[in-house]
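Researcher: We're teaching a course module on how sequence relates to structure. For the next exercise, students receive a sequence and then see the predicted structure as tokens, so they can try to spot secondary structure elements on their own. Here is the exercise chain.
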Amino acid sequence: MDIPLYEQLYNYILQEIRTKRLNSGDRVPSEKEMADQFNVSRITSKKALEKLNQEGVIKRIRGKGSFVSDLLPDWVIHNQAAEAIKAPPSTEEDWRMIGFITPNFSDEYGATLLRTIEKKCREQKCHLLITRTTGSREEEQRAIRLLVNLGVDGLIVIPIHGEHYNTELLRLVLDGFPVVLADRYWKGIPVCAVYTDNKRAAQELTAYLINKGHERIAFLSPPEKNTSALEERLQGYTMAITRQGLKFNPDYCLTSLTSTLPSNLYENDSNKDNELLTKFIARNPDVKAFVTAEFSIASYLMQVLHSLGKPLDQYEVVCFDSANNYLGQPLFTHIRQDEKKIGELAVEHLIAQLDGLTVPPHTTVDFQIVERLPPLM
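Model: And here is the predicted structure for the students to work with:
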């Protein structure tokens, strides 16, 4: 069985002391120095130093650092209870292997997350295997089985949309296999998750429209049930409406759009959504502002409005994530999620699990509202 990284660092310091490369009173490398030297997370190096401190091998002085104890325990001096001394992995053959499962990725969301996870894995001396499920439950199950059979040490997963949790993934979580969910979480399931604070983001995005004078604001999304990101975006929209003293109108919510889901990019779904949006606009002619849960829905809405001959400058549409125009400017005022932070934390939390450390069940990541610039005249 592989020795956890923090144990390897712990053993490394012991060996430095036993071979007299570190003597009583000598300063021990700090958390940051060890993390940089061995290309591990600071969580890992901190755990190693904490264990050495608890066993009396080093003493920690606030503001100065850690030092080899003046009176070392006998078992250290006599080389007793020594575990296999193994430096952190130095060749690619020794690297761990991590799997990343995602429904899809695009420039507006997912590409930066993927690049960050790949970069962070390389820094942590981990190989990365990537599979794309296109939003299919069967493909997600196949990907999980494939990666586990290939011997991955842990998984980072963006779960697909859907009413039910994937039983393959749920079984791994309950068996204690290292898993981190990115972008969303599972309610009631003890699994580590890193995601945007979607409720607050949707609340601020809706308040942005209210502060611009809009009172009749619609919310558009795919089916939100059991998809935490979509559920919280709807909740945030609702909270903003009621807290600003406006009356919540359920008729202004359309949460059955499916053509933009990775698993439903077919013409018949587009036709169905076209019909849904056309009827929605006809039923609610006074609605001129829209909060959309995804960029693709915002884009599709504008196409439908244009096809109906509506003057687009009379409508204001905001969304989560957005592509840019040819000048590099966002097409919509939108929530920019911190994909880089989500990716970094997902890898760090997975590595921490592999090292036997406790990780927080939920980590929320901040966001930005990015305003669309007025068109050039």
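Model: If you want an answer key for the exercise: Residues 80-87 have pLDDT under 50 and may be disordered. The two ends are 66 Å apart (CA to CA).
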